[in-house]
Amino acid sequence: MTAESNHAKDVDKVSGSRARVEALPNIGPKLAAALRAVGVPDAETLRQRGSEAVWRDMREQGLFDDATSLQALEGAVRGVRWHDLDRGLRARLVEIATDPDHENGFAADAG
Predict the structure, then answer these.
(1) 22-60 per-position pLDDT tens digit
(2) Are the beta carbons of 32 and 22 closer than 8 angstroms?
(3) What is the DSSP letter of 7?
(4) Residue 67: which residues within 8 A CB-CB, separation 6 or more?
(5) CATH of the domain at 8
(6) Is 111 within a domain?
(7) Which domain holds residue 69?
(8) Residue 68 placed within a domain
(9) Mean predicted confidence (pLDDT) in 98-111
(10) Residue 81's beta-bridge partner residues?
């Protein structure tokens, strides 16, 4: 099987429960490695734990602690490129990344 067909297989499995995180939008090799370092081996785990919780775990370990990485994770959870997220949501994610110790994360607002 070629690398191209492997990639196509991964992309087909994005909606599946155990798709590799690299198959999600916004997730390159470095971010995928950081996700695995905090116990997120696949797309389903990322969706279950949520972008903010995973981002906070990465931040605690000194990995990808900026607003763009949080936006990338949220985009991955939603299956879209981070720059296609709603402007209001992107702004809220920037607020969280700027003041990560604030207790009201966006998950509480997502209702």
Answers:
(1) 999 999 999 999 999 999 999 999 999 999 999 999 999
(2) yes
(3) H
(4) 93, 94, 96, 97, 98
(5) 1.10.150.20
(6) no
(7) 3-103
(8) yes
(9) 61
(10) none
